[in-house]
Write a structure and sequence with these properties.
The chain is of the alpha/beta class. It folds into two domains: 1-34; 36-130, Rhodanese-like domain (Oxidized Rhodanese, domain 1), CATH 3.40.250.10. 51% of the residues lie in helices and 14% in strands. The chain contains six helices and five strands; from the N terminus they run H-E-H-E-H-E-H-E-H-E-H. A five-stranded parallel β-sheet has the order 1-5-4-2-3. The longest helix has 31 residues, at 3-33.
Length: 132
């Protein structure tokens, strides 16, 4: 059996392995993204005490007004491997000003936090407008 006869077999094996890895990565990402849930205000309020409530807005906005019980951390701080202030064994409830930054941050934090990450739909603007 010469090299000419083995090459097609090697090619098929390599292509199969690469396709398997591609599909596996895609499935893994989909499962991870399922751990991020954007939830409405009522659901957020009802459950936010079951995990850690984190405000990722700028410190000035946080100090001016916030959801009672929230702690303020930057996304950069949360992604830091050495930080120990935010527990990894509890769900994370995130909010920002309008919901966009927290949604983006949640996806970046998936690898750091093994539990679910819940994002307040519409952010603090929704909380403020509907809590009057």
């Amino acid at each position: 059996m010469g090299i000419q006869e083995i090459l097609p077999f090697i090619f098929i094996v390599v292509v199969g392995v690469l396709l398997g890895q591609w599909f596996s990565n895609k499935t893994m990402k989909k499962k991870m993204y399922n751990r991020v849930q954007v939830i409405p205000l009522e659901t957020f309020k009802k459950n936010m005490r079951k995990g850690q409530l984190v405000d990722i807005r700028k410190k000035e906005l946080y100090e001016k007004e916030k959801i009672k019980g929230a702690r303020n951390f930057s996304t950069r701080f949360l992604k830091n491997k050495k930080q120990t202030l935010v527990r990894k064994d509890q769900d994370l409830y995130l909010y920002c000003q309008n919901g966009k930054k927290s949604r983006k941050a949640a996806r970046k934090l998936l690898t750091r936090f093994p539990k679910n990450i819940f994002v307040l739909e519409g952010g603090y603007n929704t909380y403020k407008s509907q809590s009057k």
